[in-house]
Design brief:
Layout lengths: L1 H17 L2 H6 L5 H4 L19 H12 L1 H11 L7 H8 L10 H12 L3 H4 E4 L5 E2 L3 E8 L4 E7 L3 H22 L1 H6 L1 H15 L2 H14 L6 E2 L12 E5 L3 E3 L3 H6 L4 H19 L2 E2 L7 E4 L8 E3 L5 E2 L3 H15 L3 H10 L9 H12 L12 H14 L9 H17 L5 H16 L2 H35 L4 H27 L8 H15 L2
Parallel strand pairs: 5-10
Antiparallel strand pairs: 1-3, 2-3, 3-4, 4-6, 7-9, 8-11, 9-10
Helix pairs in contact: 1-9, 4-5, 4-6, 5-6, 9-11, 14-19, 14-20, 15-16, 15-20, 16-17, 17-18, 21-22, 22-23
C-alpha cells in the first residue's frame, strides 16, 4: 500500500503540473510564507508554455484525470455558485454526468460476465453508445425481452486500486493534521475519512444501490413529491444494475423547465420537504443529490414532481441524532439561541463546563443576521465558516456520523439557489418540523414507543435471571448467611432495574413523556430494593 500511495502522489503531482493548477493557487491572496513555497518547486524555475484552456477547464480536466474521489469533490463544488466564479462552476457542472466514458466493449464484456448470458439473450435492444457517464459507472439504454425500456448501469473497471491509493493519502493527511493541530482534532478527520472509505466502497456494489433504490421507492409510494425508478432484480448483480428508464428534465435545465411553465417556487419548496421527510420521517436519505442525479417530471408542471436516480450513497440517523437535530433546528427557527446552546452542551458536542451565556451570545451573533432574508441573500458557506470559528472557541467537536447529512445540505442549498433564489428556507422548513414533532407525541406514536419498550422487558427479565443464577452459583463456593445473600441479591436486582429504567427513559426521550412510565416504575422499584434494609 505504501508503494501504491507514493506512486499515486507522483501521479497527482504530474496532473498539477500538466494543468498548471499551481498557477491558480498562487493567483489567490495567500500569506507571504505560502507564496514563498513556489520558489521551492523545480518545475517553476523554467519558462512554461501557456495552456490554451480556461482556468475552469483546467480544474475540471485535472479532477477528471485524478479519478472518482476528486470527481465527486468537483461535483459538490459545482452546486456552490455562491462560492465559485461563474466560469469555474459552469465547467465543474460537466462532471455531474459527462465524464468521458470507458470502452463500450469493456462494458459489454463485464455485463455478460456478471449476468452469465449474452447481451442478445437478455435484451432485445442494447445501445452501445453510453447514455451517461459518471465517476463510478456509466449507463447504457436498453430494452428487455419483455418490452420494458430500461437502463443498464455498469461499474468502471479498475477503480479499487485508484480509490485505495487516494484513501491512503487521505488517511496520512488526516493523521498528520490530528497530530499537529488541535483545531483539526475537533473535526475528527481520521473518523471522517473512515466513514468516507465505507461510503465510496459501498457505492461500487450495485446490489446495495438497488436495495437503496427499492427502499426509497417504498418510502415515497404514491407520493406527489418524488418518484424512484423500478429495479429489475432478476438482472442485477454486484457490478451491473438494471432499472426502469425514466424521462424527465434535468433539474438544472432552467430554460426547459420555464418553457413548460413549471412552478419553480413549488419545485424548490418540495425539494426542501423531500429532504426533511427523508431525514426525519424515514431516517433514510439520498446523500448524493447533485444535479446529475435529480430530474423533474414533465407531467403536471403546475404540480412538479422530482425523479431521483443513483441511490448508491444514502445516509441514516439514529433516533438520538434525529431528536437532537429536530430540537436544535426548531429552537433555531424560533430564534431560541439559549435552547440551541443548551442542546449543544447536553449532547456533549461542547464541554459541560462551557458558560451557557457566552455560548448563547456567540451563536446569536452569527445566526441573527441571516433571518428574514431570502436564500439568494444568504451565503451558507460564510455562515458555516463563522459558525466553525465560533465553535472552535468553545472546543466544539464535529460529529463524523453527520458528515453525509452536511454534504447533502450543501447540495440541497445549491439546487434551491438555482431553482428559486427567493425561497424562504425558514418558512418552508418550520411547518414540517412542527408537524413532525406533533406526530412524535401523537397517540399512535406513543403507543408505538410503549410497545417497543414493553418488548424489551422479557430481555431485561432474562438478564436478571441470568445474573441471579450466577450469584447463586458463586454462593455455593463461598457460602454466606442466607439473609445477607438475599439482601445482596436484592440490591443487585435493584441495580439492574435502575440501569434498565435509565435506559428506557433515555429511549423515551424525556422523563416527562407519557411513554416513560415503565421507566419510572423500574426506577422506583430499583431504588426501593437498593436502599431497603
Amino acid at each position: 500500500m505504501k508503494l501504491l500511495a507514493v506512486r499515486r502522489l507522483l501521479r497527482i503531482q504530474r496532473v498539477v503540473i500538466r494543468y498548471r493548477l499551481d498557477d491558480l493557487l498562487f493567483a489567490l491572496p495567500l500569506p507571504w510564507w505560502l507564496m514563498a513555497t513556489r520558489f521551492a518547486m523545480p518545475w517553476r524555475w523554467f519558462p512554461r508554455k501557456p495552456l490554451d484552456l480556461s482556468r475552469g477547464a483546467r480544474l475540471r480536466l485535472a479532477l477528471q484525470d485524478l479519478g472518482p474521489i476528486f470527481i465527486k469533490f468537483g461535483q459538490l463544488l459545482s452546486t456552490r455558485r455562491d462560492l465559485l466564479p461563474e466560469d469555474i462552476a459552469d465547467e465543474l457542472m460537466l462532471l455531474q454526468d459527462r465524464v468521458p466514458p470507458f470502452d463500450p466493449q469493456l462494458a459489454i464484456n463485464l455485463i455478460e460476465q456478471q449476468l452469465g448470458a449474452k447481451i442478445s439473450a437478455v435484451f432485445s435492444r442494447f445501445d452501445v453508445e453510453p447514455l451517461a457517464s459518471a465517476s463510478v459507472a456509466q449507463v447504457h439504454a436498453a430494452q428487455l425481452k419483455s418490452g420494458e425500456e430500461v437502463v443498464v448501469k455498469v461499474v468502471r473497471p479498475g477503480l479499487k486500486p485508484i480509490i485505495a491509493q487516494d484513501l491512503a493519502w487521505l488517511f496520512i493527511i488526516a493523521k498528520v493534521a490530528e497530530a499537529l493541530s488541535a483545531d483539526a482534532r475537533l473535526l475528527h478527520p481520521v473518523e471522517v475519512v473512515s466513514d468516507y472509505e465505507k461510503t465510496i466502497y459501498d457505492e461500487l456494489d450495485l446490489l446495495r444501490e438497488a436495495a437503496n433504490a427499492s427502499q426509497l421507492k417504498r418510502n415515497f409510494d404514491d407520493s406527489p413529491l418524488l418518484y424512484v425508478p423500478q429495479v429489475h432484480w432478476d438482472w442485477c448483480r454486484p457490478k451491473v444494475l438494471v432499472m426502469e428508464r425514466i424521462y424527465g428534465i434535468q433539474v438544472t435545465d432552467l430554460a426547459t423547465l420555464a418553457d413548460q411553465r413549471t412552478d419553480m417556487k413549488m419545485l424548490a419548496e418540495r425539494g426542501v420537504e423531500i429532504f426533511f421527510t427523508q431525514v426525519f420521517r424515514d431516517s433514510f436519505f439520498h446523500a448524493d443529490m447533485h444535479p446529475g442525479n435529480i430530474f423533474v417530471s414533465t407531467v403536471q408542471p403546475w404540480s412538479p414532481k422530482y425523479i431521483a436516480i443513483d441511490c448508491g450513497i444514502v445516509g441514516s440517523l439514529t433516533p438520538e441524532d434525529q431528536d437532537y437535530l429536530a430540537r436544535n433546528l426548531f429552537a433555531f427557527f424560533k430564534r431560541d439561541y439559549r435552547r440551541v446552546a443548551q442542546l449543544h452542551i447536553d449532547s456533549g458536542w461542547v464541554p459541560a463546563e462551557t458558560k451557557l451565556n457566552e455560548f448563547e451570545a456567540a451563536i446569536r451573533t452569527v445566526c441573527e443576521p441571516i433571518f428574514e432574508k431570502p436564500l439568494k441573500d444568504i451565503s451558507f458557506g460564510q455562515v458555516l465558516m463563522r459558525l466553525f470559528q465560533t465553535a472552535r472557541r468553545f472546543n466544539m467537536e464535529v460529529q463524523p456520523q453527520l458528515v453525509l447529512l452536511q454534504k447533502t445540505l450543501l447540495n440541497i442549498e445549491g439546487l434551491g439557489r438555482q431553482l428559486y433564489p427567493d425561497l424562504d428556507l425558514w418558512s418552508t422548513a418550520q411547518p414540517f418540523l412542527e408537524r413532525w414533532m406533533r406526530e412524535r407525541v401523537s397517540p399512535r406514536s406513543l403507543l408505538g414507543n410503549l410497545h417497543s419498550q414493553v418488548e424489551q422487558l422479557p430481555h431485561l427479565a432474562n438478564m436478571t435471571r441470568d445474573l441471579l443464577e450466577r450469584m447463586s452459583q458463586s454462593h455455593t463456593v463461598e457460602p454466606t448467611p442466607p439473609r445477607a445473600g438475599d439482601s445482596r441479591a436484592l440490591r443487585l436486582l435493584g441495580g439492574v432495574l435502575l440501569a434498565g429504567g435509565a435506559t428506557l427513559a433515555a429511549e423515551a426521550g424525556a422523563f416527562s413523556t407519557l411513554t416513560a412510565w415503565p421507566a419510572w416504575l423500574m426506577l422506583a422499584a430499583g431504588l426501593y430494593l437498593v436502599v431497603r434494609r
